[in-house]
Input
Amino acid sequence: MHFDRDTKIAFLGMGLMGTRMATRLVQAGFEVAVWNRSPAACESVLSLGAKPLQLSEIGQYPVILSCLADDNAVQAVLDQIEPFLTAQQVIVDFSSLSVDQTQKLAQQANLKQVTWIDSPVSGGTAGAEQGSLVIFAGGDANTIEKLSPIYDVLSQRVTRMGETGTGQATKICNQLIVAANSTLIAEAVALAGQAGVDTRLLAPALAGGFADSKPFQILTPRMATHSFEPVQWKVQTLSKDLNNALQLAAQFQLQIPVAEKALSQLQAHQAKGFAEADLATIIHQVEA
Output
């Protein structure tokens, strides 16, 4: 098993992250074939030189990358491609899934002698565009190392966290921090505004201090000015990730009340029609 710039790649899922990641691979010289449930989402990457992918031809691609919405979406796509998979292929899943589902998917792939590597990412759309994502990988160490030519185009760092599912467990912990942070940022911006602070100054004023973070620098200016386009993080995506965290914690009988509160806020906001909206719109939930 050897991967380089001549390795043909199939990429499934042309959402906010998938389109940007596939674009980087095409621009780096890889031969990339792309698929999305809604074909129109592939157009921007196809215009750059990617090829349209027929799922029945997926056996021709040594590496299959996926970046899909949730457990159900990944399961549905794996069921579709399973009859066409061939031995020694590698599936690298960038989606953010539950640990249990990831382990089931890996077992299903293994029955076809296909290696599953869970590789959820952090860094948002900006990281995907710039190739500065961080990747949490779970699975066979040798395979993860050999995937370096692909990972290097997409990320600043790949860390193997352990066996299958540990990449997803790490991403879940990452999202716990991001979710709690984002809801607190909204509260801080709302409180500062009520106290007479020019909230547009919060991000530069707190930069480099203990309260600073990437989410703070991204979300605070958007919340301060109520500028929510283009969408960078979807509310429903973080809600899904937090729900996965609560399910994982329940398996270990671990209480995580801050995550529960953050999820309730996100779900209430989502129920008001903000599921597809940017995460920064959570400021509306606090200001209401």
About this structure: The beta strands are 9-12, 32-35, 51-52, 63-66, 90-93, 115-118, 121-122, 133-138, 155-162. The chain has 13 helices and nine strands. The longest strand covers residues 155-162. The chain has two domains: 9-163, 169-287.
